[in-house]
Design goal:
- The chain is α+β, with helices and mostly antiparallel strands.
- It is built from 9 helices and 8 strands.
- The strands form 3 sheets. The protein has a 4-stranded antiparallel beta sheet with strand order 5-6-8-7, covered by helices on one side. The protein has a two-stranded antiparallel ribbon with strand order 1-2. A two-stranded antiparallel sheet has the order 3-4.
- α2 (27-34) crosses α3, α5 packs antiparallel against α6 and α6 packs parallel to α9.
- It starts with a strand and ends in a 20-residue tail after the last strand.
- 30% of the residues are buried.
Length: 229
C-alpha cells in the first residue's frame, strides 16, 4: 500500500501515517517509532519538508533551545488516499454551484442518507460498540483511518474525506455527522474537526437513537419539507 507515494512500510510512509494519527511529534518521538537515531529521523523529516508534506514549529519551554514539533502539512492532508473523496467532492462542488446556498443543507442531507445506505446492512442487529467497530473497518477500507474511543462512546477520524471542499463549505461536516448517525442509528455530537485545525474529526454519542436504515426522501430537491433534526 502507498501513502502519498511512499510505501506504508518505508520510513517516510511510517512518519506520515504516525503524524496523521497522533497529530504531531518530535524528532525523538519519530526516532523511537522508526528504531533509528535522531539524526536519521531528522534526515527523513528534511526530505518530507522539501516535498511539502511536513510542517515544523518551534516550542519554547523555559531556557535553552526550543523544541521542534512536526505535523502534516495541508498539502499532505489533501493528498492522503480517500477513495470516495474525488467523486463526492466533485459532486458537492457542482451542487453548491448549481443550487445555491439556500438548498445546500438539504442537498447534503440527502447525500448523507445515500452514503449511510452503503453501511446500513452491516450495522443492523449489533450493539452500538459492535456498530462503531464495524464502521471503523468500513471507513478504513475507504482510505479514512479511524479509531473507536476507549470508552466506546464515539469515533475519531484521522483524515477528512472531504478536506478540500470543507475549507470553503463547512456544511459538509454536518453531512458527515449525519451520515455516521444514520449508519449507527445513534445521535452524535461533532466535538472537533480537522477543518478547524484539530488533528481529528471527533464524534461523540449523545442520548437518543434514530432509525438504523433511514428512508430516502422521495420528493424532488427543494419541493418537500425538511426533516426535523
Amino acid at each position: 500500500m502507498l501513502v502519498i507515494g511512499y510505501s506504508a512500510s518505508s520510513a517516510a510512509g511510517q512518519i506520515l501515517q504516525h503524524l496523521q494519527r497522533v497529530g504531531e511529534a518530535t524528532v525523538k518521538d519519530l526516532a523511537t517509532l522508526l528504531g533509528v537515531s535522531t539524526t536519521a529521523a531528522r534526515d527523513h523529516l528534511i526530505h518530507l519538508q522539501a516535498e511539502g508534506l511536513v510542517s515544523v514549529r518551534a516550542e519554547r519551554h523555559g531556557p535553552g533551545r526550543p523544541r521542534l514539533v512536526y505535523t502534516l502539512s495541508d498539502e499532505a492532508r489533501s493528498r492522503f488516499p480517500k477513495q470516495y473523496d474525488r467523486l463526492i467532492t466533485g459532486l458537492l462542488r457542482e451542487l453548491i454551484a448549481l443550487e445555491g446556498a439556500d438548498k445546500v443543507e438539504l442537498l447534503l442531507e440527502r447525500v448523507s442518507r445515500r452514503l449511510a445506505d452503503e453501511y446500513a446492512d452491516r450495522m443492523a442487529g449489533t450493539d452500538v460498540s459492535e456498530r462503531l467497530n464495524e464502521l471503523r473497518r468500513l471507513l478504513e477500507q475507504r482510505g479514512v483511518p479511524a479509531e473507536v474511543a476507549e470508552g466506546g462512546d464515539g469515533i475519531r477520524l484521522f483524515a477528512c474525506p472531504f478536506y478540500d471542499v470543507a475549507q470553503d463549505h463547512p456544511q459538509v461536516c454536518s453531512m458527515e455527522r449525519q451520515m455516521i448517525e444514520y449508519a449507527l442509528g445513534e445521535k452524535l455530537a461533532l466535538e472537533s474537526t480537522i477543518r478547524e485545525g484539530a488533528h481529528t474529526c471527533r464524534f461523540v454519542l449523545k442520548n437518543g437513537d434514530i432509525a438504523l436504515t433511514p428512508a430516502r426522501p422521495s420528493e424532488p430537491v427543494g419541493t418537500g419539507a425538511r426533516e426535523e433534526r
